[in-house]
């Protein structure tokens, strides 16, 4: 299988070359030429597999035999050895219509660990086997940065720089990133919001001379391996919910807290492969560009709002372009026209049959801060289960769209200890995991800079050359 760009101007690439490219050289996102179809017989066989074996089965469909099976097994085993639950992503039943997929059992207590622990091992493998220089550059709204740093810190042949919006991530998210003082890690705290950080990253990756000179590699979900790794837990969650239901043959929905569209696109991919998900539900917060798109067909960034769920405080969703590609029947020319409209400051509009198709494929709800706090209190009182604010968005959407004869698996994308600022508003005292409690006493290492591409470039050139401009 080869990979092509959503904008149609990149020669087909193999799997490893696609991962190393990250953002397509034409500014598009890389997708497989064909999505593999999984038969009912294969789904039946996969139902009994543990998470790691299921990962290998799904990954092998996309990797073109470029990674020997024994090497792939070692990468998967190393990636998930640090997870605190043997199932990696266990499913808990909260009531007859709601199941929770816990994605926070990795080292940084967030769903990003599932993909980024593997990605760190994968980049290290490629560096060793192909002699590639790996300089990772990424932006984060909070969780990606910590997970990416944890995945590659101390690894030989790899350097990583992460941009995060200054003062707009939770304190635990900030500490998880900035208490790391390894020589191969640089944290840049940018005055601005996540969209500002993401814009700078995309501009640097679009500068092909700069990208090639400094061997830039992507860690954000613009990189297809992130999407693929996340696809695995959709299959796993579906199978586990099905197993827990027993003879109860209800349809299974999934509700996914989503800011950058990467996580929900992984579910879209799983469904196109043949996983019989009933409803794909997008849960957002008050930065609800995705809800507005599904409801009205208009995709246009709105006013940025700071919320209790900061990882979804995003107005420009990078992976939306991948969905648009399939919505437009894989017409790269049409995708390019739409994306140019967005780049020119105009909005994307789909209507008529296209909008009907969107609404048949996706459901969406933007939950308010008040709704989230109410749900956290409600489920704590009724079930004893503590939701984090992002997970509460997912549960709000679950309650809105789950109908008779359906159950919904709602994704718990982070441990509530990462967002204690919101939890404390409800006078709930939670016990912190030891790994998080210990962060408070550690020194921080970060460089606070203006929202300025030239300054980011200066920092990167010094870092990749073997030093750091300044750390404070």
From TrEMBL:
Q: Which residues form the Threonine synthase N-terminal domain?
A: 2-80
Pfam family membership, one? PALP
Give the EC class as a word.
Answer: lyase
Q: Which CDD domains does this one have?
A: Thr-synth_2
Which co-factors does it depend on? pyridoxal 5'-phosphate
Tryptophan synthase beta chain-like PALP domain boundaries: 92-352
> Which reaction equations make up its catalytic activity?
O-phospho-L-homoserine + H2O = L-threonine + phosphate
In the Enzyme Commission scheme, what number(s) does this protein have?
Answer: 4.2.3.1
Q: Pathway, per UniProt?
A: Amino-acid biosynthesis; L-threonine biosynthesis; L-threonine from L-aspartate: step 5/5
Alphabetically ordered keywords of this record? Amino-acid biosynthesis, Lyase, Pyridoxal phosphate, Threonine biosynthesis
Q: Which family does it belong to?
A: Belongs to the threonine synthase family.
This chain's function reads: Catalyzes the gamma-elimination of phosphate from L-phosphohomoserine and the beta-addition of water to produce L-threonine.
Q: State what protein this is by name.
A: Threonine synthase
What broad taxonomic lineage does this protein's source fall under?
Bacteria, Bacillati, Bacillota, Bacilli, Bacillales
Annotated gene? thrC
């Amino acid at each position: 299988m080869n990979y092509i760009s959503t904008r149609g101007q990149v020669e087909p690439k193999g799997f490893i070359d696609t991962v190393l490219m990250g953002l397509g050289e034409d500014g598009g996102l890389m997708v497989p030429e064909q999505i593999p179809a999984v038969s009912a017989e294969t789904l039946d066989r996969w139902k009994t597999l543990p998470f790691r074996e299921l990962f290998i089965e799904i990954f092998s469909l996309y990797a073109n035999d470029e990674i020997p099976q024994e090497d792939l097994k070692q990468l998967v085993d190393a990636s998930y050895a640090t997870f605190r639950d043997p199932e990696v992503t266990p499913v808990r039943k909260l009531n007859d219509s709601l199941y929770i997929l816990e994605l926070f059992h990795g080292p940084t207590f967030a769903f990003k660990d599932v993909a980024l622990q593997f990605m760190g091992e994968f980049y290290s493998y490629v560096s060793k086997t192909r002699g590639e220089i790996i300089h990772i550059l990424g932006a984060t709204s909070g969780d990606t940065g910590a997970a990416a740093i944890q995945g590659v810190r101390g690894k030989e042949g790899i350097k990583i720089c992460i941009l995060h919006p200054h003062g707009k991530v939770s304190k635990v998210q900030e500490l998880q990133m900035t208490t790391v003082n390894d020589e191969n890690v640089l944290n840049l705290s940018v005055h601005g919001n996540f969209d500002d950080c993401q814009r700078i990253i995309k501009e640097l990756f679009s500068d092909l001379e700069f990208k090639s000179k400094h061997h830039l590699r992507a860690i954000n979900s613009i990189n297809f391996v992130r999407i693929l790794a996340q696809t695995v837990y959709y299959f796993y969650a579906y199978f586990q919910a099905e197993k827990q239901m027993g003879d109860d043959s209800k349809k299974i929905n999934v509700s996914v807290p989503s800011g950058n569209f990467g996580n929900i696109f992984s579910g879209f991919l799983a469904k196109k492969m043949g996983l019989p998900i009933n409803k794909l539900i997008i849960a957002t917060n008050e930065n609800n560009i995705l809800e507005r798109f599904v409801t009205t067909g208009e995709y246009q960034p709105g006013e940025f709002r700071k919320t209790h769920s900061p990882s979804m405080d995003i107005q420009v969703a990078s992976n939306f372009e991948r969905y648009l590609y399939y919505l437009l029947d894989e017409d790269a020319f049409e995708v390019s026209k739409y994306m140019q409209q967005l780049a020119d400051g105009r909005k994307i509009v789909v209507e008529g049959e296209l909008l009907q198709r969107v609404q048949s494929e996706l459901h969406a709800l933007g939950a308010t801060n008040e709704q989230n706090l109410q749900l956290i209190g409600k489920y704590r009182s009724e079930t004893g289960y503590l939701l984090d604010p992002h997970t509460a968005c997912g549960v709000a959407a679950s309650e809105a769209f789950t109908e008779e004869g359906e159950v919904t698996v709602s994704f718990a994308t982070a441990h509530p200890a990462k967002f204690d600022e919101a939890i404390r508003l409800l006078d709930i005292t939670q016990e912190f995991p030891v790994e998080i409690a210990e962060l408070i006493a550690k020194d921080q290492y970060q460089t606070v800079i203006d929202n300025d591409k030239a300054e980011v470039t200066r920092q990167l050139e010094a870092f990749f050359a073997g030093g750091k401009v300044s750390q404070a």
